[in-house]
C-alpha cells in the first residue's frame, strides 16, 4: 500500500468512529402505544446513507480503486449524495453529484456546503445516470463511480453495523421494519436477521407513482436493483406505502412526541408497521423531517401539540 493510500485509509477508518451507533427512541403513535425508532437522522450528514457512503468508499480506498487524485461520482437525488459529499469533504476528495434538475434547493445547499460539484440532467435519476455514464466513458481512469445499486458494500454496511446495533439495543425485538430504495437496508437486515427469530418487514413506495415518497421505490415501477436480494428478503413481507394516511400519521407523531417531525419515508414505513400485532417492533428511520422543509412546515403548521405522553421520549443507546 502506498503512503498516500495508507493515509487515506487511516482517515476513512477514523471517520467510521463518527458514523452509526445511532440512538433508539420510543415513538408514541397514540397516548397508549409506542414503537421503537432507530434514529438514523443522527448520523453526521443526517441520514442512514452515511453508512453505505462510508463503507463503499472505505473498500474502494483499501483495494486501491480510489487514491487521493480520484474524482468520486454518483448519480443520486438524495441522501446517498449527501453522505458521499460529506465523506469526500472530510477526506479531501473531489465529489461530482449527478441528479435531476428537480433536486430541492435545500439538498443543493447541503451538497454545496460539503463542496460537491453539481451536475443536472433533464428527466429523472435514470437520465442523470446516463449523463454520468457518458462522462465516465470519455475518461474512465479519472472517476470512481460509486454505483450504490450494484455495490455490495452498500448492503454490507447494514449487515455489519445497523442490524447488529438494533439487536443489541432492543434484545427483545420481534420485528424490524425498513424502507425499500436501493435495497441496501433490506438486504443487509435480511442476512443479519436470518436464524435470529426476528422478522424483517419491508415497505416499498406507493403503487401510485404520482404520489410517491422521495427516497423509496416500488418494484411495480422499477426493475429490481441488482443488489436487492429478494430471496433473502422474502416476498410475503413486502408492503406498499399507503399515501392516504401518510400526513395524518406524521401529524399524530408530532402531536404525541413533543413536536418531533419524522421524515416522509419513516412515516411511509409506519403506515404499515402500525398494523402489526407485534409487541416490540423497531422502525429504522432513514432521516428526520427537518431535511424536508415543505413537509416539516406542513406538519408543524397543522396541529397543536398534545400534553406530553406519560413517558417522554426515551433514549436507548
Ligand atoms: C430517506 C430514505 N429512506 C429510505 C431509503 C431507502 O434505503 P435503501 O436504499 O437502503 O433501500 C433511502 C435511500 O436513499 C432514503 O434516502
Give a concise summary:
The protein has 317 residues and is α/β, with parallel strands linked by helices. The chain has eleven helices and eleven strands.
Give an account of the 3D structure.
The chain has helices at 3-15, 50-62, 79-91, 105-113, 125-138, 152-169, 184-193, 230-233, 246-256, 264-273, 293-302, and strands at 24-28, 34-39, 71-75, 94-100, 117-121, 143-145, 175-179, 199-204, 238-240, 281-285, 315-316. By secondary structure, the chain is an alpha/beta fold. Helix 8 links the parallel strand 8 (199-204) and strand 9. The protein is globular. The protein starts with a helix and ends with a strand. The structure holds pyridoxal-5'-phosphate.
Q: Biggest sheet: strands, sense, closure?
A: 7 strands, mixed
Low-confidence stretches: 309-313
Strand runs, count: 11
The helix tally amounts to 11
CATH class of the largest domain: Alpha Beta
Q: How much of the sequence is in beta strands?
A: 15-25%
- Overall structural class, as computed from helix and strand content, comes to alpha/beta
Amino acid at each position: 500500500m502506498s503512503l498516500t493510500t495508507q493515509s487515506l485509509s487511516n482517515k476513512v477508518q477514523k471517520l467510521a468512529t463518527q458514523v452509526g451507533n445511532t440512538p433508539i427512541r420510543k415513538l408514541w403513535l397514540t397516548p397508549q402505544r409506542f414503537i421503537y425508532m432507530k434514529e438514523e437522522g443522527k448520523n453526521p450528514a443526517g441520514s442512514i446513507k452515511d453508512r453505505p457512503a462510508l463503507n463503499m468508499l472505505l473498500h474502494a480506498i483499501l483495494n486501491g480503486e480510489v487514491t487521493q487524485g480520484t474524482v468520486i461520482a454518483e448519480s443520486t437525488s438524495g441522501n446517498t449524495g449527501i453522505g458521499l459529499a460529506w465523506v469526500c469533504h472530510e477526506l479531501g476528495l473531489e465529489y461530482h453529484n449527478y441528479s435531476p434538475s428537480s433536486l430541492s434547493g435545500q439538498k443543493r445547499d447541503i451538497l454545496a456546503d460539503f463542496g460537491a460539484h453539481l451536475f443536472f440532467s433533464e428527466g429523472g435519476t435514470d437520465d442523470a445516470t446516463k449523463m454520468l455514464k457518458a462522462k465516465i466513458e470519455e475518461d474512465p481512469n479519472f472517476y470512481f463511480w460509486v454505483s450504490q445499486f450494484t455495490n455490495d458494500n452498500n448492503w454490507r454496511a447494514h449487515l455489519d453495523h445497523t442490524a447488529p446495533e438494533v439487536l443489541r439495543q432492543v434484545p427483545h425485538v420481534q420485528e424490524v421494519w425498513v424502507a425499500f430504495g436501493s435495497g441496501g437496508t433490506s438486504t443487509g437486515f435480511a442476512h443479519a436477521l436470518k436464524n435470529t427469530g426476528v422478522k424483517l418487514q419491508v415497505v416499498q413506495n406507493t403503487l401510485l407513482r404520482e404520489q410517491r415518497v422521495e427516497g423509496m421505490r416500488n418494484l411495480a415501477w422499477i426493475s429490481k436493483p441488482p443488489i436487492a436480494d429478494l430471496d433473502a428478503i422474502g416476498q410475503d413481507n413486502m408492503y406498499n406505502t399507503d399515501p392516504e394516511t401518510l400526513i395524518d400519521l406524521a401529524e399524530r407523531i408530532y402531536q404525541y412526541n413533543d413536536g418531533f417531525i419524522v421524515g416522509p419515508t419513516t412515516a411511509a414505513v409506519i403506515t404499515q408497521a402500525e398494523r402489526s400485532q407485534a409487541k416490540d417492533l423497531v422502525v429504522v428511520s432513514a432521516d428526520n423531517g427537518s431535511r424536508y422543509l415543505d413537509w416539516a412546515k406542513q406538519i408543524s403548521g397543522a396541529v397543536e401539540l398534545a400534553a406530553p405522553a406519560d413517558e417522554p421520549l426515551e433514549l436507548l443507546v
